[in-house]
Design brief:
By secondary structure, the protein is mainly alpha-helical. It folds into two domains: 30 residues; 94 residues, Cytochrome C3 (Alpha-Beta Complex), CATH 3.90.10. It contains five helices and two strands, in the order αββαααα. A two-stranded antiparallel sheet has the order 1-2. A hairpin with a 6-residue loop joins strand 1 and strand 2. It binds heme C (3 copies).
């Protein structure tokens, strides 16, 4: 009985440890550099958020977005004059899916994508700024 309890305890410990490990790696998932992490667009308006983790965990392949419509380099789309709502409504960029069919439409849920200046400051206060090092304004 005593040895059984020990075995049981060891097994339980192993399960709990494995569980914690999974939780920890999921929590870190949003900062995963490999999948591009969290992108914050600042042009033409501050601030629009794109989370790789949310999209990739739904089962999307990298090539559903790369290299069309997006390059694997933060700050690329922002350089285009047509990176705006009109283009999204026409099915470009995020609007390729955010059309009310594949995903919620771009003319709804503004604040899901637009975290605003307050959200931006909150984010940059706690998280390292990613991929926008060029700093021209
Ligand atoms: C739903 C669309 C979408 C999917 C799916 C997606 N990405 Fe991205 N990715 C983006 C967007 C948007 C950007 C930013 C592009 C820009 O700013 O022009 C980006 C940027 C990147 C960057 C550059 C990050 C940086 O800081 O410069 C990398 C690397 C990247 N993606 C890798 C991946 C990989 C690997 C996968 C698959 C596991 C993937 N992406 C899946 C949309 C996507
Ligand atoms: C290849 C298709 C695809 C592209 C491109 C895409 N998304 Fe999505 N996105 C989805 C799907 C599918 C969902 C989940 C379904 C839904 O929420 O309607 C989603 C969900 C989201 C959500 C909600 C996340 C949450 O909290 O649940 C946000 C915000 C978002 N996308 C922003 C963006 C932005 C910003 C871009 C462009 C930079 C973009 N997406 C490009 C397919 C896409
Ligand atoms: C699916 C994500 C998404 C949704 C939903 C969304 N936007 Fe945008 N929005 C973007 C992206 C991406 C840009 C271009 C990048 C930037 O300006 O930072 C942008 C840019 C803009 C701009 C500046 C460019 C322009 O077209 O004038 C305005 C204003 C704007 N959005 C307003 C809105 C309003 C209002 C809503 C809700 C009715 C909305 N957005 C919903 C992603 C989204």
């Amino acid at each position: 009985m005593k040895t059984l309890n020990k075995t049981l305890l060891a097994a339980l410990l192993a399960i709990v440890t494995a569980g914690l490990f999974i939780v920890a790696s999921q929590a870190m998932g949003s900062d995963d550099e490999e999948d591009g992490g969290t992108i914050v667009f600042t042009k033409p308006v501050k601030a629009v958020i794109f989370e790789h983790s949310i999209h990739v965990e739904m089962g999307m392949d990298c090539d559903s977005c790369h290299d069309d419509p997006f390059e694997m380099a933060a700050g690329t789309a922002e350089e285009n004059d047509d990176f705006n709502m009109k283009a999204l409504y026409e099915g470009k960029y995020c609007g390729m899916c955010h059309d009310g069919e594949t995903a919620f439409a771009s003319n709804t849920n503004c604040t899901a994508c637009h975290i605003g200046v307050k959200g931006y400051n909150r984010m940059m206060g706690t998280k390292e700024k990613k991929g926008h090092g060029s700093g021209h304004h």
